Amino acid sequence: MLDSLIIGAGPAGLAAAVASARQGLRVRVVDEFYQPGGRLLGQLHQEPDGTWWNGLAEAARLQQEAVEAGAEIRCGVSVFHVTRQDTSWIVSTSEGVMEASMLLIATGASETPVPIPGWTLPGVMSIGAAQVMTNVQRVRVGTRGVIIGINILSVAIARELLLAEVKVDRMILPAHSVISGDASHPVAVMQSMLRIAHLAPSPLIRMGSKWMKSTWMQRLGTALYPSRGFSMWGIPIQLRTAALAIIGVNQVEGVRIAHITPDGQPVSGTEQIIPADFVCIAGELSPLAELAAVAGCPFAYVPSLGGHIPIHNERMQTPLDGLYVAGNITGIESAKVALAQGTAAGMSMAFSHGSLRDPHVLSDSIKQIEIVRNNATLQFHPGIRAGRMQVGLMAAERSL
Amino acid sequence: MESHRVIVCRCEEVSLADLIETASSYSCTARELKLRTRAGMGCCGGRTCRNMLDQVIEAVTGQKPDHAVSLGYQPPVRPMSFQLLGGRK
């Protein structure tokens, strides 16, 4: 029987495999995709110090380290169900039933795109799908596209498309609807973009963001925002334009757009149709916690972490015996934080197993998560620390 | 936005207008909304629309999501073949 079965071969799962296999545990990692690395595979961006974060290389390094440490990695395996039986976890997969004394769920997050009329047409995809096609499968998503939804993720992926010489005509907001939330509100989008302005390629935008700190300045900035938008890497970012509908007969042919007020209301008489053969919709990310739910794990609803989070303590243990979580299932943060969490989860499993004797190694790996978080160039949400504290308190209430 | 034209649940072809109308007429929970419209009950198990059902309920009735997950998850959480279900593998 396995000591530890890890579901998800992304940064968290692979880091956990490296840490626990190095401590002598019998470890297996399974992943639905045909290649290990998870979301790392698509990541390619420049850090503010000018160095590049190459997720593909990072994934290859982790895979090699995990295999060298003795972990087994099986790709193309889907997990349908997990149950606890006596002292082990029974995991039902597309490759049969697997059994392990400890289970780590590191399934990451899924995208929740904002629906727009016409979003079911062929040629419309989530921004993450465009990233995978471009950087992993090396398939051209189209010749002229529109990105609907302006946020940290979509701006980063727009640049990746540009590096692959895929033309992005412009980035605009989704039209306001009952469920579009802040994504269709120019002032709210401007506020969230200002938090990442220090990453902008243009010194002008970086400087501008400094005197845009106050709310009235942001309102004024949004009101004065030019309708053709600002360009980042040559891609027009139009905060004051919304996509009303994606149009086409058998596939995407264009997008019907209109100017919008700072509050997101369409301005009549400004409607026009722009041609496009692909459309990416960028929404939020939501922790992928379905397996934790069928296992019977209790949840905490924490909007700053992305939604429903399996309750866990700093050792990444859930209230269920032998069930651990790490990575974006515990809250939406960067791949580097997921990696540090994976290492801590791996050490934690080794400690429970008895093969890691020195508790300082475990506590150091937990401290490391906070160090990585503090050094992160961008915070996905300003309320991450408060959210994590809330989950920690709920774990403590269950004497975890 | 023309909400009748937006499909929210692709498997069961339920539109945003259907969801808003049902949520307002019955002032119900996300679970009741699911059962009344079949949104989230298709073959994907609500992987695309689950969050949107919660958002519709919050926007229409003002109910905030609770710590407990509003729409339960049932195994299998991924589509699986009859061959596998029958234990042939």
From TrEMBL, chain A:
<dbReference type="InterPro" id="IPR023753">
    <property type="entry name" value="FAD/NAD-binding_dom"/>
</dbReference>
<dbReference type="InterPro" id="IPR036188">
    <property type="entry name" value="FAD/NAD-bd_sf"/>
</dbReference>
<dbReference type="GO" id="GO:0016491">
    <property type="term" value="F:oxidoreductase activity"/>
</dbReference>
<keyword id="KW-0560">Oxidoreductase</keyword>
<feature type="domain" description="FAD/NAD(P)-binding">
    <location>
        <begin position="4"/>
        <end position="161"/>
    </location>
</feature>
<dbReference type="InterPro" id="IPR051691">
    <property type="entry name" value="Metab_Enz_Cyan_OpOx_G3PDH"/>
</dbReference>
<protein>
    <submittedName>
        <fullName>FAD-dependent oxidoreductase</fullName>
    </submittedName>
</protein>
<dbReference type="Pfam" id="PF07992">
    <property type="entry name" value="Pyr_redox_2"/>
</dbReference>
Automatic annotation (TrEMBL), chain B:
<dbReference type="Pfam" id="PF04324">
    <property type="entry name" value="Fer2_BFD"/>
</dbReference>
<dbReference type="InterPro" id="IPR007419">
    <property type="entry name" value="BFD-like_2Fe2S-bd_dom"/>
</dbReference>
<feature type="domain" description="BFD-like [2Fe-2S]-binding">
    <location>
        <begin position="7"/>
        <end position="58"/>
    </location>
</feature>
<dbReference type="InterPro" id="IPR041854">
    <property type="entry name" value="BFD-like_2Fe2S-bd_dom_sf"/>
</dbReference>
<protein>
    <submittedName>
        <fullName>(2Fe-2S)-binding protein</fullName>
    </submittedName>
</protein>
